[in-house]
UniProtKB/TrEMBL annotation:
Residues 182-209 are annotated as: Disordered. InterPro entries: NPHP3-like_N, P-loop_NTPase. The keyword Ubl conjugation does not apply. The keyword Oxidoreductase does not apply. Pfam families: NPHP3_N (PF24883). SUPFAM superfamilies: P-loop containing nucleoside triphosphate hydrolases. This is Nephrocystin 3-like N-terminal domain-containing protein. It comes from Fusarium oxysporum f. sp. cubense. Residues 182-200 have a biased composition (Polar residues). The lineage of its organism: Eukaryota, Fungi, Dikarya, Ascomycota, Pezizomycotina. Residues 214-380 form the Nephrocystin 3-like N-terminal domain.
Length: 598
């Protein structure tokens, strides 16, 4: 029963499926008819094919219309060609798109690969350069270490800073001898200045001559390559050189000469270590300053002079190697240089500087041959340097620092316990007796202050102190006399020096006697301490021969006599006695001989 029931259900369902299939076929035919009727009838299709524009239709659309004309009514038949064309078109477009995409991907891949390779190469190169630079920085520091010696800056650091307001005249184009002492100076001291000037004119007529002046400021701006700062021992040359080397006004004026300029400085020092008093130390110091902070220039030097790579300390250098490297560095540098050398007389080797062949002083001559290099040097007025710098512009510091000394004495001398007249007289006499020697006036002001503070305010006692040589100057005088060297033991040198010292002592006594007894008239005549009188008195001849009847002495004879005496003073007395340099218009009869103050 159950089986029969299942069979009946199956038959019923089979019939139901057949009915559904027939319904679907009818719907399909109806859909085709409606679609074809909506798209285009057979007659309409035939009409379309006759139109001119039919040929311009897409090939697949032409195929569909042609099939409609032929009576085809199946949609599947109509779209067969179109589907095939569409498939071909899609396949072609897919292939084209794939080709384009693959090309772009390949190009991008190549670009990325190339960029990565370049980046890796650049990174590798940067790392290599960094390692090389790091290694060369060590080489550069090693090179500088081979030049550096512990005492390199000792002398510069031992030089006292200049007193405020002093040395301003050095930048004055006209070399004004009267600097502004400032509002702090008491007004009545200006009257004392006038009195000092008048008294000085009466007693030492030659000091009224305006000294010849070579403008340091003009020299800085010019193409001239040498300038000489000369002066007495302890007159302040080193302090002045320190001011010049490290003052912004120096750089400002140098930039008018060359916009890209550097300053180098070295200070010789006889009491210091060996390298502070020889040419080798100077070359080490200057080369160090040129190369400091210039690793690129150092690398070029290694290429030009490979042997310098192996230097480890200053003892590895010979002077010839230093000179060669220094000259090369100055020439190879894009900068110009102004070199300040203080105290040439402190280096014994430089006494040969006018005659440099086969001597260490050749280094100075080599420096002067380098383009765009200026040299400003200071020294005492010894014979060698007078010869070497004879044609160079110069300044004799003791001729121009009188205003500085006056300023120092006014501001540092404790004059509160003195009467006005005594105060003015003490300042005047202190400045006069200083004769441009700053060390002397510094020591003397200290002695006077100690006496005044202990209530020794008698002007006679203070004048007595002025006439006494400070003990601190004894070593200076001993050093000056010792610079004669072995020549000091020569009898002829000893006799010549003794003669002039004794003559000056006697001449001053005579001058003082004649002046005190009003036996000189105004204006002052030729003094006993004049160079001409001293030259005549120093002749090793009998009085009868000098004063022989009928003897005629020409001006040329007198000039030759004075010139010989001047040379003897320089060679035998070594600055302890000297002839002050004044203007060329000063008569020879009014040139005097003076001693270093003390």
């Amino acid at each position: 029963m159950a089986a029969s029931k299942k069979s009946a259900v199956a038959l019923w369902r089979g019939k139901e499926l057949q009915d559904a299939e027939q319904d679907l076929q009818r719907y399909e035919q109806l859909f085709h008819s409606l679609l074809l009727d909506h798209v285009c009838s057979q007659s309409q299709a035939a009409e379309v094919t006759s139109l001119e524009s039919f040929r311009h239709l897409h090939r697949a659309l032409q195929s569909i219309i042609s099939q409609l004309v032929d009576g085809s009514t199946e949609v599947s038949e109509l779209v067969t060609d179109f589907s095939e064309n569409l498939s071909d078109r899609v396949a072609d477009e897919h292939a084209t798109t794939r080709t384009v995409i693959e090309g772009h991907v390949t190009s991008a891949e190549n670009t990325i690969r190339q960029s990565m390779a370049q980046s890796i190469d650049q990174l590798r190169q940067e790392l290599l350069e960094r390692e090389q630079n790091k290694a060369f920085e060590k080489q550069h520091e090693q090179f500088l270490s081979s030049l550096r010696f512990p005492e390199m800056n000792d002398r510069k650091n031992h030089i006292s800073n200049n007193y405020p307001g002093t040395f301003d005249w050095i930048f004055d184009r006209h070399g004004s001898l009267h600097s502004d002492c400032g509002s702090s100076c008491e007004s009545d001291l200006s009257d004392m200045d006038s009195q000092l000037s008048e008294n000085t004119q009466d007693s030492d007529a030659e000091t009224t001559d305006e000294p010849d002046f070579d403008s340091f400021a003009d020299w800085l701006e010019s193409d001239s390559n040498v300038f000489w700062v000369s002066g007495k021992p302890a007159s302040g040359k080193s302090s002045l050189m320190k001011v010049l080397a490290f003052n912004h006004r120096t750089v400002d004026r140098l930039k008018i000469w060359q916009s890209n300029v550097r300053i180098l400085a070295h200070f010789f020092w006889k009491p210091g270590q060996l390298l502070l008093r020889n040419v080798e130390g100077m070359a080490l110091s200057l080369l160090y300053q040129v190369m400091d902070g210039k690793p690129g220039l150092c690398r070029k030097l290694y290429t030009a002079q490979p042997s310098v790579q192996h230097k480890r300390s200053h003892s590895d250098w010979s002077l010839d190697e230093l000179a060669e490297a220094l000259v090369w560095a100055l020439e190879a540098s894009p900068e110009a240089f102004c070199i300040f050398l203080d105290g040439l007389d402190e280096a014994k080797e430089l006494e040969h500087v006018p005659w440099p062949d086969w001597t260490n002083s050749q280094v100075i001559h080599k420096l002067l041959k380098v383009n765009d290099v200026k040299l400003c040097a200071s020294s005492r007025e010894e014979h060698a340097f007078c010869s070497f710098f004879k044609d160079a512009p110069r300044i004799r510091i003791q001729q121009f620092n009188n205003s500085d000394i006056t300023l120092f004495v006014r501001e540092r001398l404790d004059i509160c316990g003195l009467e006005c007249r005594d105060r003015d007289q003490l300042v005047k006499e202190t400045v006069e007796r200083a004769e441009g020697v700053f060390l002397w006036v510094t020591l003397m002001v200290g002695r006077l202050n100690r006496a005044i503070r202990q209530h020794y305010t008698s002007i006679e006692m203070l004048r007595e102190l002025l006439r006494q040589t400070p003990s601190d100057l004894a070593m200076l005088y001993t050093d000056m006399w010792g610079r004669i060297g072995d020549d000091a033991r020569l009898p002829s040198i000893q006799i010549t020096a003794s003669r002039y010292f004794n003559l000056l002592i006697v001449a001053r006594e005579i001058d003082e006697y004649l002046s005190n007894n009003s036996l000189y008239w105004h204006p002052a005549p030729m003094r006993m301490s004049s160079l001409l009188v001293m030259a005549a008195a120093a002749q090793d001849r009998r009085m009868e021969a000098i004063l022989s009847t009928g003897r005629v002495m020409t001006v040329e004879d007198l000039l030759a006599l004075s010139s010989r005496a001047e040379n003897e003073l320089k060679l035998a007395c070594r600055g302890l006695l000297e002839k002050p340099v004044v203007s060329a218009s000063t008569p020879v009869a009014r040139l005097k001989v003076s001693k270093l103050q003390g």
